[in-house]
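Fill-in record for Putative Cation diffusion facilitator family transporter.
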Amino acid sequence: MLKPVKRMEQKSALSLSLIAIASVALFEIIAGIASNSMAVLSDGIHASFDALLTAILLIMLSMSMKPRDMEHTYGHGRLETLAGLIGGIALFIVAIFIVRESLFRIVGAEGIVPSMLAFYAVTVAICVAVFRAVVLAYSMHGMSTRVGFYDAIADLGSSVLALIGFILASNGLYAADGLASIALAGMIIFLTSRLVYSSAMELTDAIDPSLVEKARRAILSIDGVKYCKDIRMRKVGRDVLADVTVVLEGSITFSRAHAISSEVEHAVMRVAKASRVMVHFEPEYEHMPIEHIIADIASGVNGVKDVHNVVVSRERVRKKNVNSSEDKAKDRSKDKDGSYNNDDNDNGDAIEALIVSMHVQVDRNLRLDEAHKVADMVEYEVKRRVKGIRDVMVHIEPIMPKMDMVEELRDGVLEARIRSIASEQGVRQISRIGVYRCNDMLTRIDMHCSIDADTSIEEAHEIISRLERRIRDELNAIAMIHVEPYGYDNTSRSMQINRKG
């Protein structure tokens, strides 16, 4: 973004250029009519176009310094585009009339020799064009003054052409004045047609396809982007606005997805010179286990705080037991809008159906009917977006309360009770117990428990789960239990880790 000082320099340069070219346009039009020189009159009309273009550039620069408002959330650039379209069409019509009048003079029998007033007018126009080019050349910090500089160069060329036509007409080549005016009218038509075309395309949100392709290549070069689903670009005044949809691996974390989105935003800004880029990312589950897909879908349901223990079982059932005909019709349309197919085989009377169970944590302050609505929505979304599911069982749990400030509690009687409960569940040894309370309430118990080393992991998990339930039921506290094999030397291992560090 340009600094305010540089913008003020551009505004001053464009203001000087506007005053100069408007004065020349008025002088040349009056001189062309008074001296009967179509070339000078045409150059005056061309100067009017330059004045209009300079005014548009000045308005555009002024608008760019104005902040967005509630009625113009994308800014005020479209006003400049509309002004360019209307002004271009008007000058295009004027140029047609110039050509018509010039043709009448060329085919007419009487030759008209322009007066010296026309010579003075063209000379002044050339001097002003040089002045404008010099002023704008020293202030080319942005697109507005750059366009104004190029226009001043074009105006200089047209004035020189008018001077040549005047000299030839003064030496008896009477048609030269008309031919020069036709050439200048052609230049006006060329410039205005380009302005009208670009303005019309911009108003219809047209954009250069090569710009979109550059942005697409830049996006696909970013690590983590699977593919670019959609790119939409448009211009509002000088600003390029882009809306991008990218597909990311469904298993990545939200923070990583946000980081990739930022990289996409900066890449599009760099290659497309975009002033604003909106990035939307979608997950892609092609190579993810079905359990992860279901957990991700459930996590997106409003009211769900956490999802765990997702278990998917498969059974062979008859088709009619899986979904109704209406459900099947819906399922057949899902492939087109982003549903997930578990690759069931529909051949034959029996197919493979899925039975899903999961634990869903919700706000502990919800009423049962409110929590049940969340569970119903989870079941609905999972069935809607994953094909072949016969049943979804949702186990509702209250989410763990937030504990910002806790106090460790030293209570020998309580610790003895905890050890007794653990021993009853098959725990061989407890190496550490941490008891914490919050707001004078027992809330959390941390434990390091040892179990026989030859115990299977499934059996160990069952022992710990029973212990957690007993502590929750008897002591009204949440147990966080770390399990390790009995005889494990935790102290020596810690020393080894410290030595390695």
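KEY FINDING: The chain has 14 helices and ten strands.
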